[in-house]
Each structure stands twice: as structure tokens, then as C-alpha cells.
């Protein structure tokens, strides 16, 4: 039985939350493996909306194990708040377990402060980070100065590490950015309270996942962001600070790569991006505004308006390659209803005549000079939200998804035609391979 990775094929916000929530029905363990509370997964269940930032989207299901893997950076304040919120709204099933890796790194107040201070200081080339301290937290992990959940639970180690970190971080805050320093006692007290609250959830999650796999249980690995925000494979430097590609599901949970049997790439029927960075198919016209409004394209974490544009198959093809995607799920097809002519980008052309059809040029200057090569298709006007199978879609909507499937070269697993669980055409369960 395959274990499945779900990842975004664009710049995040593809609608992974809904797909993970649907696939979670067939899974026993749902594990996040990278990112932090820069992610925002929006779920609509029985008309009720829940946005999760740290806790895996499987949490709304009974009888699951939800894992925050070692590759995630955890803001304990956000984790505590999400747990409390889910419990207060009776959305945390009694027989579902939530576990966070003891070796996951923490986001500390100085990470948030440095993230914001750096962005504010940049004049031209801002990344447009979510300001959640993600980059600085990953920097400390690689610099080997980071504080892990297991360190938080050990008072002596935590005190020592906090002191050492604050010495350095307060230097940057005051001397480089001209800001007020953080008070050691205040941070200590705040984090001690989190330690008490989070203790029951901290575990060696690699062992837990491995044990479940041995019992024949099914694991669903939940990606955050998208392949083009990957720190290696994305549009660097306009990326996040983790590896978002499928390969990191293994490293970010402590499970060998051969445990992964299928990779589902989530592909929104059009493209969006929040924050800065190149966006070849961006629409700065009325159609872009319409997609933004109809698709309610606001960042789930920051509330920022997302930039919108036509579907870009160059992005998707690169993602299929770098993540070994075995099937694609198309989301938010309904948002395109009523647009007379639709365009799909099948290549980029540079002024010197070079054409890129399978990979995004690494050189940002070359990329910024590229122009999209489009195929045009007729749109549809019929309401498609209640379609249950591909045959229920109007002819032109069917042609649109079939064209994506042909261009992608991998089979479709699902088409989402509305926000609810019921607004979905399921073609194939990735677990049934
Ligand atoms: P950071 O991850 O907060 O450092 O932000 C780096 C870049 O990634 C910015 O352009 C963010 O807007 C973008 N980003 C981070 N997380 C997400 C996400 O979940 N969806 C979409 N964009 C994101």
C-alpha cells in the first residue's frame, strides 16, 4: 500500500488543505514535514471554515495520528493557540493524536523581530516574507544555534541556549537595526508556559511513523507552500527557507525515501503568488482582478491580496520533475467559470529566441525578459460546482482539464470544483496503487 506525499506545484496556496483533508479519510497518519506557520491551510467542512497554520490538516478526522515532523519550524505560541481553538470549537476529535517531533526547531521572538526588521530595511528587493520568523529560524538550525522542542522541555538547556542566542540576536536588533532588545526573563517566562502546555505532544515522531508503517498503516505527508518556493528549486531568492519538494517528506519526518509510493501535485487551475518575485503569466488587468475576487485570493496567513495569472505549465512540468509527481489534482476549476477565453502557458520565449518549456530559467534577468507562449481554449459558463464525475463537466471545462493532463504527462487524480468536501470529482485514490 502506497504512502502518499501531497505537495503544491506552484507558489503555494494551491488548495492543498482541502485535498489533504479528503485524502486523510484513507490515511492513518498525516505528517507535515517542512515550513511553519507561514503556511495557511483553509478547510471548509459542513460549511464551517477552519484555517490551520501548524497543525496538519488531518486533525479534523477521527482516529488519526497527526504529526508535526522534524523539518517543520514550530512557533509554540501558534501551536498552543491552534490546539486551544480546535478544542474550544470541539473540532479536535478525542481519539485523534497530535504529536510534534522533539527535534523540530522552535521559532523564537527574535526570529520574528529579525525577519520583520530585515524586510523593513530592504529598499528595493524585498522578498515579501510572511514575517513569521521562518527564515531566521531555519538559519539558526543550519548555524547549529537553534533551539529544539526537546531543548524547550529541559529547563537548564533552554536557559543556556536562550541566553547565548539573545546575546547575539540583541546585538543585531540594537546595533544593526536600531531596535529595542528582547528581555531574557520575559522570553523565558513566556516559553516556560508553552513548555508545560506542549509537553504531552512532544515525541520521537520518526519512531512513531515507522511503527505505524510496520503495522501496515497508511501515511499521508502534507506539504506546505509549493515547489517554486523551494529554497533550492524555486525562484531564488524569492522563496521560502525550506525544501518544499517531495523529497523532503523523507528527511523532514525521519523516514526512508522508499517508503513513499505516490506523489500528488496540487495544481490550481490558474496561478497565484503572494510576496515578490517573477511571475510570467501574471494578469494585471480586469481578468486578473476577477480571478482574485471570485477565487477569494487573499493570503490565509497574512491576508495579503494574491497576484493572479493564467495557468503556467512550465512551472508545473518543473515541479513534476523535481518532485517525481505521479498524479495531479486540479483545484478551483470553478473560479474560471464565465471567462470567455482561457489561456495556458506552454513555454517562455526570451528576446534572444531561446524557448523554455520544461524548466524555469535560473538566471533572474533572463527570466524577467521572457514572454509567455500561450495556447488558447474556449471557456464555459455553466455552474460546475456539483459535478461528481468528469462527464458531468461542460465540454469546454472537460477540454481544459484534459489539456492540462496531456501537457503534464501524468494522470489526473482529482478535480476540485468548489470549497466543500462534496464539491470534488475523485478519479482515483492515490492510496490504491
Ligand atoms: P517566508 O516563508 O515567510 O520566509 O516568506 C518567503 C516567501 O514565501 C514570501 O514570498 C511569502 O509570501 C511566500 N510564502 C511563504 N509561505 C507561503 C504559503 O503558505 N503560501 C504562499 N506563499 C508563501
Q: Please tally the helical runs, counting DSSP H or I stretches of 4 or more residues.
A: 13
**Which ranges are low-confidence, i.e. pLDDT below 50, for 5 or more consecutive residues?**
none
Overall pLDDT score:
95
What is the number of strand segments?
A: 20
Structure overview:
- By secondary structure, this protein is an alpha/beta fold.
- It is 32% helix and 20% strand.
- The strands form five sheets. The protein has a ten-stranded mixed β-sheet with strand order 9-7-5-2-10-1-11-15-19-20, with helices on both faces. Strands 14, 16, 17 and 18 form a four-stranded mixed β-sheet that branches.
- A hairpin with a 2-residue loop joins strand 3 (41-45) and strand 4.
- Helix 6 (155-176) crosses helix 7.
- The relative contact order is 0.16.
- Bound molecules: inosinic acid.
- Inosinic acid binds at residues 11-13, 38-40, 127-130, 132, 134-135, 224-225, 229, 238, 240-241, 274-275.
- Residues 11-13, 38-40, 127-130, 132, 134-135, 224-225, 229, 238, 240-241, 274-275 line the site of inosinic acid.
Salient structural properties:
single chain; 433 residues; alpha/beta; 10-stranded mixed beta sheet; 4-stranded mixed beta sheet; 20 strands; globular; binds inosinic acid
Amino acid at each position: 500500500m502506497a504512502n502518499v506525499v501531497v505537495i503544491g506545484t506552484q507558489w503555494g496556496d494551491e488548495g492543498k488543505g482541502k485535498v489533504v483533508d479528503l485524502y486523510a479519510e484513507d490515511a492513518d497518519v498525516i505528517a507535515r514535514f517542512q515550513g511553519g506557520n507561514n503556511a495557511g491551510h483553509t478547510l471548509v467542512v459542513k460549511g464551517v471554515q477552519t484555517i490551520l497554520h501548524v497543525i496538519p490538516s488531518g486533525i479534523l478526522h477521527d482516529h488519526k495520528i497527526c504529526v508535526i515532523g522534524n523539518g517543520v519550524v514550530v512557533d509554540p505560541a501558534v501551536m498552543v493557540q491552534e490546539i486551544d481553538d480546535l478544542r474550544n470549537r470541539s473540532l479536535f476529535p478525542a481519539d485523534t493524536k497530535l504529536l510534534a517531533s522533539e527535534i523540530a526547531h522552535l521559532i523564537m521572538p527574535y526570529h520574528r523581530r529579525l525577519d520583520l526588521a530585515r524586510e523593513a530595511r530592504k529598499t528595493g528587493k524585498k522578498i515579501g516574507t510572511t514575517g513569521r520568523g521562518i527564515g531566521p529560524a531555519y538559519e539558526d538550525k543550519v548555524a547549529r544555534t537553534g533551539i529544539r522542542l526537546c531543548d524547550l522541555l529541559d529547563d537548564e538547556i533552554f536557559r543556556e541556549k536562550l541566553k547565548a542566542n539573545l546575546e547575539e540576536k540583541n546585538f543585531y536588533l540594537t546595533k544593526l537595526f536600531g531596535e529595542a532588545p528582547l528581555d531574557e526573563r520575559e522570553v523565558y517566562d513566556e516559553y516556560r508556559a508553552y513548555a508545560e502546555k506542549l509537553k504531552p505532544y512532544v515525541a520521537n515522531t520518526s519512531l512513531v511513523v515507522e511503527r505505524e508503517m510496520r503495522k501496515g498503516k497508511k501515511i499521508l505527508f502534507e506539504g506546505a507552500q509549493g515547489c517554486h518556493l523551494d529554497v533550492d528549486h524555486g525562484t531564488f531568492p524569492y522563496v521560502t527557507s525550506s525544501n518544499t519538494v517531495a523529497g523532503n517528506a523523507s528527511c523532514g519526518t525521519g523516514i526512508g525515501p522508499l517508503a513513499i509510493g505516490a506523489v500528488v501535485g496540487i495544481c490550481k487551475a490558474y496561478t497565484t503568488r503572494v510576496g515578490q518575485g517573477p511571475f510570467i503569466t501574471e494578469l494585471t488587468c480586469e481578468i486578473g482582478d476577477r480571478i482574485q475576487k471570485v477565487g477569494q485570493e487573499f493570503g490565509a496567513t497574512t491576508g495579503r491580496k494574491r497576484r493572479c495569472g493564467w495557468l503556467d505549465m512550465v512551472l508545473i512540468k518543473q515541479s513534476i520533475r523535481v518532485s517525481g509527481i505521479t498524479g495531479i489534482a486540479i483545484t478551483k476549476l470553478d473560479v474560471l467559470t464565465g471567462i470567455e477565453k482561457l489561456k495556458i502557458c506552454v513555454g517562455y520565449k526570451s528576446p534572444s529566441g531561446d524557448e523554455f518549456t520544461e524548466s524555469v530559467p535560473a538566471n533572474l534577468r533572463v527570466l524577467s525578459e521572457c514572454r509567455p507562449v500561450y495556447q488558447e481554449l474556449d471557456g464555459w459558463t455553466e455552474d460546475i460546482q456539483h459535478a461528481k464525475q468528469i462527464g458531468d463537466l461542460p465540454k469546454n471545462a472537460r477540454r481544459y482539464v484534459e489539456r492540462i493532463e496531456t501537457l503534464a504527462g501524468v494522470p489526473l487524480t482529482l478535480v476540485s470544483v468548489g470549497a466543500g468536501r462534496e464539491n470534488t470529482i475523485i478519479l482515483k485514490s492515490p492510496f490504491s496503487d
